[in-house]
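Step 1: inspect the first sequence and its tokens.
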Amino acid sequence: MDYVQRYLVLISILWIFMSRKALSQFFGTTIDALRSRNQCDCMEYWQCIGSGGKPYSYCSYSSKVCCFIDPNSVSVGILPRPTKSSSCGTKGPNSDRDGLSEPGEWAWHAAVLEKPQDLYVCGGSLVDEHWIITAAHCVDEYRSPNTLKVRLGEHDVSSTAEPFKYEEFDVSRIVVYPTFNNKTLMHDIALLRLTKPAKKRTNINIVCMPSEGITNNELILSPRCYVTGWGKTADSENHFTY
């Protein structure tokens, strides 16, 4: 290859690089404008497709895409009986970070908040499209359901830059187990009814619950157990882990 040929190849490579850079800057500017209008969110391609979204273009120089997600999703529906083919309790992608979860990994986990300051009260789980199960000692003192709300699909409570949006629901009813004892914490169970049905998304789903009449011997016990939520992992900690 002579000098002229090498020169032409070099010019071609530079032209391709500058074209890609210009396109990336163009799409980056366009995407920033779209994101400012809440029309799309930057996330990994597989997360966009898994959410039923449509990728628009790459977000600047990252591997993430600007994803359009249809806000009109199908309803979660009535709680299914636990079977091998059941869609309830399906855990999301595993986290490779110690103590931290991935977005959508625990899609049934809920945050119970006190209005209007959004103070964190307790965690809970979505058991069907209208009901959250939580601890009775967390909500026993709240006489009016209007003082509470439930947030589903939340991941990092300290950040709004998340691949999946959370949803918030008002509470219409608080049901504390009749024989709950606040001193001994016996029968520490309560239910919260949502004012509108939840919708199934990548980061919102229902947890599996035993069907009526099932015996302890019929329950499938696992040697591994996970605790999820936002809070301290030890009494000695002076900060919260999300």
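Step 2: inspect the second sequence and its tokens, then contrast the two.
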Amino acid sequence: MPPSRRERHRLECDRSDRVAGSLARPRSCGDRHGRQRQDHGPGAGDAAEAAGCDDRGRGALAARRRPIPAACGVQPGMSNRRTVFLVCPYGQIGGGMGSIMDYLASQQHDPLDRFDLKRLESRGGGHIAFSPLFLAAAVGRIVLEAMRGRLAVVHLNLAERGSVYRKAVLLAVAKLSGGRVLLHLHAAQIVQFHASVGPARRMLMRWMFHAADHCVVLGEVWRRWVADTFDIRANRISVIYNGVPATAPRPRTVPRDGRFRLLFVGNLLERKGVKDLLQAFATPSLRSRNIELTMAGGGPVEQCRALAQQLGIADRLRFTGWVSQEAARDLMVNADALILPAYDEGLPLVILEALASATPVICTPVGSIPEVLADHETALFVSPGDVSGIAAAIVELIDQPATGRRIAAAGSALYERLFTMEAFARSIGSLYATLAPRDASPGAPAWPPVREARDNRQR
């Protein structure tokens, strides 16, 4: 009896795999991992073992395989690397969360270079009414990548409010599709949000932190809160500080004419301390000073402009609206100090970018900031809402330029020690390598994966 069509198709797939196997040049897993340890130290080698030596061996064959029918799981021309989705809003709406994922996607060194990092928009930059369309598209991309056998990790970047519900949907889809999930908490107001919602939404948040394979937070304060609030074991939470690229040397384009130039970068929201900053600018101690404030960010710009007019300081303020990362760096080069008098923060990228560019910082000790900065050493601290304190800190930098230079130098050294993009990428990449399924390779079907993921987490 001749074989059925399905049987003939299976035999063809088997023959293709045997041909690919005959083309392979044998290479031991021990050799590969030994070289990685020599080049990158024990951590890199351990991460490679966590990812599984079989993944690398199979991945090396993909480029040499003859074309295989699409139904067998491998598409012609498919990349050797498995996919990591970087999920968050991008562009203006994404803020620092989108910026750091943009930075991460551009990194190519080990262990990130063994994965194909893809940006995945979860909300869209337009009106919130269009958000479900972007969410549906994100669901489709995750499912499609899983059906191709290429899905490794879904990196979900979590804020508060609507972000919780969108990421809950994507987390469920990722787990059902066989991907590992890294839940990365960025929300500055997650504590207040959790306290303000009812039992059902608290249970949803608890489920998210338990369903994720691993959690990343921006500091010890957030690690303790997640562990205590959701009863998460310590070995499932990593503290990874944000990182930013080094600032390339660039010339100052504004002449030093004796005017002190202060810079604010961020959305012009009340929680960022914008109103307090404008009121500080109107105090008598600053009215007589040769000083200019540039406010770079989106949000209620016209309301802030109207308040500046009302306070009589509009002639010393400049509103740029939202600016790109490159434009923000240009503004930083020409600034004498960065100021961020916020009420709530995680670990703001703009502060790290100021450290990288050796620009002195005035900020509030909120979120993870006091874990990494010290008052009058690497920054000047002011209390949230302290208008007179904000004015006094600005006056101190104007009257004592040596203080600003000392703080800037210490901040630059701190950046090199803790906040480089390379350090951040290595830490995140090692988690990807640990979380990625040991037995998955390009073209290997990922379904049904849920029991395996659950068993691995219990081990």
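Step 3: confirm your contrast with the notes below.
The chain has two domains: 81-243+422-458, 260-418. The two ends are 48 Å apart (CA to CA).
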